[in-house]
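User: Hey, my collaborator sent me this sequence without any context and asked if I could get a structure. I don't really work with proteins. Can you help?
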Amino acid sequence: LHSAFVGSRPLRCMRWAAVSQPCNCERQRSAPEFGTRFQKGGPHTAGRFGSRPSLLVSLVSRGEGSQIMMSAHKASPSPPRLPRQYVLGLNKYSHDATACLLSTDGERSVVVPKERISRVKHDGGELSGAVSHALEALDASPEDVVLAVSNNHHFRVLPFEQRLPWASAVGVYPTQYLAPLNLLPNVPHYELSHHLAHAWSVLADAPFDSGLVLVMDGMGESVRPMEEALALNDPTYMHDLRLPRTDSFQQVPAAPSGSYREAESVYSFEGGEVRRAFKRWTSERSPPELYNYGFEHMESLGAVYSRISSHIFADWNACGKVMGLAPYADAIGSGEPMRL
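Assistant: No problem. I've predicted the 3D structure and written it out in structure-token form, which is a compact way to encode the shape of the chain:
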């Protein structure tokens, strides 16, 4: 996979140029079905990262550099190729909203956090601007996107978006939430439960073929939407209850229901198959509509960090800063002078 990290300059001031061999993928608009198995690599890869078609990707700013690249293109014209297809990953309606655009041949990708556009730290909400920048960066269009996958964090995304026209009409949410590049109405959509999304984010690139994945995110998906989707046999929502269990699977409490949310999860994987090994649920002690989604009042390791960050930084979502300071605890407690 090739990824580009764009620096402090706005994305619209950048241009991409690529020369590659033709991709032999068949262009299809139909969306694949989710399953309980994952595959490392793809049709163009071998081994962990594998071989790939010869590719030249360069990121140059407007001006003299772009003129040089354009001249190079004229001297070495690229062979014709089929239009690329893209999968769009979305984290929206939560903090740190982000769009990730990845070509199905694994050759081009870009990640656009919304905060890089709005200049608001941890900015959330809708993603039309981030999606627009991602498409522009890879010279793609919405018609090139064959699948959109959303991460479900505080609530189910797809049912929420079905209610948006009414909610926006009565002023609950801004009309920008209805922007076509936020909803992408002509693109097949799927959704991942939160802890499972954390697990799958590392599985495809794991350096070994079997093992365990431990997720301790503090607040994941609620058990109620999982049970409802399972009862309706909803194929668009991939969640834990659709995964097989290990023989030693345990969960606490043994029969969660209602307003219980994921606290800590353990998944086992072997030969491409993912199974549930352990799950601890925590009850919601306050409404998720609160400014902090009730996070700091839950019983989970992540929520403990949130409570501490509220005391230190007056910010419930500064947990990462607390984690960064934690390794200094022994040195500070020893009484020895130290320099931070």
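In plain terms: Confidence is low (pLDDT under 50) at residues 1-32, 42-75. You can pass these tokens on to your collaborator as they are.
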